[in-house]
Each structure stands twice: as C-alpha cells, then as structure tokens.
Specification:
233 residues; mainly alpha; 11 helices; globular
C-alpha cells in the first residue's frame, strides 16, 4: 500500500510549486520587455500616486463584497465574499469571456453549501441569481451616467443611438427582474402554463424559478434597498 504524504508536506510542495511556476512565468515575461525603456519609465513615474492607487483596489473589492452581501436573502449571506471576488477577478485577468464570474459564483456556492441543510445545487443557483442582479445594477448605473453625459456633452448621433439601445436592453432586463420580484406567483403560473405538457420539466423549472426568486429576496428586503443603492453608486 502506498504511503500517504503528510498534509504539511503536501502543503509545502504546493507552495514551492506555485512559487516556481510564478517565477518561471515572470522570467518568460521579462524576455519580451525592453528593460532600458522600462527603467526610463519607472524613473518618470510619479510615485506619490502609487500608494492611493494601490489602496483603491482592495477598497473596491471590499465595497463590492458588501454590496453583494445585501443581494443575498437576510441571514443567508455566505462568508468570505471578499475572497470570492478576488478569486473571480484573478480568473478574469487570466481567462477570456469573464470566466471569473462563474468562478466566484462557484466559490460562494461552496461556502453556502457548507451550511446545514443546504445543497450545492440550490446554493449555486442562488449565488448565480445574485450575480445576475449585480451585473444588471452595474450596467444600469453605467448607462445612466452615460445618458447624463450624452445630454451634457455633444456626441455623434451614432453614439447616442448606441447609448439608447444599451439603455433599452438594460431597462428590459431590469423590468423582467422587477416583475419576478414583485409578482412571483404570476411568474410561477406563467411557467406552469408554458410547461404543463411536460410535468418533469415543469417540476425542474419550478425548482429553478424558486431558487432564482430566493436570490431576489435581497432586493425585495426593504432594509437592503438603501445600502444597495448607496454601494452601487
């Protein structure tokens, strides 16, 4: 029978392997860098901006984690949302198509599923629903600021049309979420009518809809509305 490695030794091996891979990739990156030009640019850098710029990043992650917490139903927020955001943004920097969003949903779902009487499937849908709401809030905020700028600053007509189109898409998505949040019973009846010929599919989709509706409870909670708006802006 093979002898199992002690946990501490395995942990040290992982750390050494991670550091080794990082150093190898860093050395590979330096091969494509013009080092004399890099030195000249560093000499021209205004270093007094480095400290506030470095502080803004962690503060932004912390603020987004606080807002994300208010998107969960009361007393069901998973721990470690700051870490989940950091992992997700790291993956976004490495992989295309914002794959980090799926990763941070997975991390949050795992921590939710660790609680008693919680399944990973329902936790995954719940965390995913909160991220969808979060993205719609972000998009609406950006488009509203964009619309204000369009009215203040003269821009090409094509830019105005593009802004109006994006605003319309966001408004439709927001209206769909509001209808789900305000009238969940009507949403269930509509889903039942659409899937009445397929009972198995109806049961499955109803379970998914219930989980999504639970993911909207954070938005429906009156005590969460003001913090959500404040941390979004």
């Amino acid at each position: 029978m093979a002898r199992r490695e002690p946990p501490n030794r395995l942990r040290r091996l992982r750390v050494v392997a991670g550091v080794g891979v990082s150093l190898a990739l860093f050395a590979y990156l330096l091969r494509s860098v013009d080092l004399p030009e890099l030195g000249r640019q560093l000499a021209l850098t205004q270093w007094w901006w480095v400290v506030p710029a470095a502080a803004v990043g962690p503060l932004g992650l912390w603020a987004r984690a606080i807002r994300w917490r208010y998107l969960f139903p009361r007393n069901s927020e998973p721990p470690g949302l700051v870490a989940a955001n950091m992992i997700g943004y790291m993956v976004n920097n490495l992989l295309p198509l914002r794959a980090g969003e799926l990763v941070r949903v997975y991390v949050a779902a795992r921590r939710l599923a660790a609680r008693p009487r919680a399944s990973f499937g329902s936790s995954l849908w719940l965390a995913g629903a909160t991220v969808v709401v979060e993205r719609i809030l972000d998009s609406l905020t950006l488009v509203l600021f964009l619309a204000i700028l369009v009215f203040i600053i003269p821009v090409p007509r094509a830019f105005e049309y593009a802004a109006a189109l994006i605003l319309a898409i966001d408004a439709i998505a927001a209206a769909a979420l509001v209808s789900l949040a305000v009238a969940p019973g009507r949403s269930r009846r509509l889903l039942g009518h659409l899937c009445q010929r397929w009972p198995a599919l109806q049961a499955r989709m109803t379970a998914v809809l219930d989980t999504v509706l639970r993911g909207l409870e954070g938005v429906r909670t009156p005590a969460h509305v003001v913090p959500l708006l404040a941390w979004t802006v």
